[in-house]
TrEMBL record:
Cross-referenced NCBIfam families: transpos_ISH3 (NF033541)
Record lineage: Archaea, Methanobacteriati, Methanobacteriota, Stenosarchaea group, Halobacteria
PANTHER family associated with the record: THIRD ORF IN TRANSPOSON ISC1160 (PTHR33252), TRANSPOSASE IS4-LIKE DOMAIN-CONTAINING PROTEIN (PTHR33252:SF2)
Protein name: ISH3 family transposase
């Protein structure tokens, strides 16, 4: 993939980077996603991607953009173009772009710790297929969601997204993790270990993870023998077995870490956490906990991603997946520009700029540029009358 504008900015930056350049860089990435389009249409993919980008940076819908701009097509032709996206081709392109952008700031040698997570995107509306969505705890007024498996690497204090995979209704977590790891294994570095949450506490999934690298994750405490091993007042290392006597039986090293809440989140008293600590048998439970705690940074990545997610009620899983990919691509671009171009070199590592925030600086800057180019409406016709005569408005 060729990204000349990004290469120029990263290798030969001007004294300042402008909102116009940020917009151009974003569109350069989106232009790499193939879209067949409508034969004979006066539009092109650039027209469509500008609308999508404006919807993403404003956390609004395509309809919200087309209704409030003068220089964009109507919603119908935009959605017709988006419906020509081919799911597998589009997903491959998004992952390839994520990989290419991430590798601009990642060393290509050695090995790294990667973090895997499952992200739920609330679903409103009526799906094309009832089996396509998953169930989650009620959020945003729904229990339906589209689920995505994501993998990150923490580098220079940044959670860079390496790959993402949709998890359809009939997908197992093991299948989704296997697919996403297959993408990460194409990266030019090794995987030292994998950090994942309690979702990994299943024999089949543990087997998939171990085939790539030693996994580390907190355990579920439903088993009597496990609860007994966690009812202690001192940290220690031991072993435990999952799926005993079954196909996916696993005996794993168990790190029992005992700490105190000390008023954190309004809690007090003893805190006991058990970790499946493959490959860390020679470490102390406190060291295992410290290694696992690095994974908490991906929650910040999700917070940022949601600030750049176009909203929609379309039943198309492909378009929804595309919007998710756009959100992660924008966040990745912000991270790379922030560290590669704006962070000041200093002894001990670069100092990240505090004023180049994702929402207020990066997204809002792109939004302003697009509002000018797309002719965002700035005034609306009134009725010229106001409230009816004699209306008791209470304004004095």
């Amino acid at each position: 993939m060729n990204i000349p504008l990004l290469k120029e900015v990263l290798t030969d930056p001007d004294e300042f980077i402008t909102n116009g350049q940020l917009k151009s860089l974003s569109l350069e990435l989106l232009a790499l996603i193939p879209m067949t389009g409508i034969e004979g249409s006066p539009l092109d993919s650039g027209d469509i991607m500008e609308v999508v980008l404006r919807a993403a940076v404003g956390t609004t819908s395509v309809n919200g953009v087309t209704e409030n701009t003068r220089e964009t097509p109507n919603r119908e032709p935009v959605m017709d173009w988006l419906h020509t996206l081919e799911k597998d081709t589009m997903l491959d392109a998004v992952n390839d772009i994520l990989a290419l952008v991430a590798m601009t700031v990642l060393d290509r040698g050695g090995s790294r710790t990667v973090c895997i997570d499952f992200m739920d995107n609330p679903f409103h509306g009526y799906p094309e297929d009832e089996d396509e969505f998953r169930r989650m705890k009620a959020r945003d007024g729904t229990t339906k969601c589209h689920r995505y498996c994501t993998v990150f690497v923490i580098a220079q204090g940044k959670p860079l997204t390496l790959a993402l995979e949709p998890v359809s209704g009939d997908d197992s977590k093991a299948d989704a993790v296997e697919r996403v790891l297959a993408r990460v294994e194409t990266y030019p570095f090794g995987i030292e270990r994998i950090l994942i949450d309690r979702a990994a506490f299943a024999g089949e999934l543990i087997g998939v993870l171990r085939a790539t690298a030693p996994p580390v994750f907190p355990v579920k405490t439903g088993k009597d023998s496990l609860r007994e091993k966690l009812s202690v007042t001192k940290s220690y290392m031991t072993e435990e077995t999952i799926c005993e006597g079954k196909e996916y039986e696993q005996t794993y090293p168990l790190a029992v870490n005992v700490t105190y809440h000390n008023g954190n989140r309004g809690k007090s008293g003893v805190k006991r956490t058990g970790y499946a600590a493959y490959g860390l048998e020679d470490r102390t439970p406190a060291q295992v906990a410290t290694i696992y705690d690095k994974r908490s940074q991906i929650e910040k990545s999700y917070e940022k991603f949601r600030e750049a997610r176009a909203v929609t009620t379309t039943p198309s899983t492909t378009i929804r997946l595309f919007y998710v990919g756009v959100g992660f691509l924008l966040e990745q671009l912000w991270l790379v520009v922030q560290w590669g171009v704006l962070a000041q070199p200093r002894r001990g590592g670069r100092a990240l700029p505090v004023d180049f925030t994702f929402s207020d600086a990066f997204l809002h800057g792109i939004e302003q540029e697009l509002d000018d180019e797309l002719g965002w409406r700035k005034r609306y016709r009134t009725n010229g009358v106001g409230l009816p005569a004699g209306y008791d408005h209470g304004l004095g």
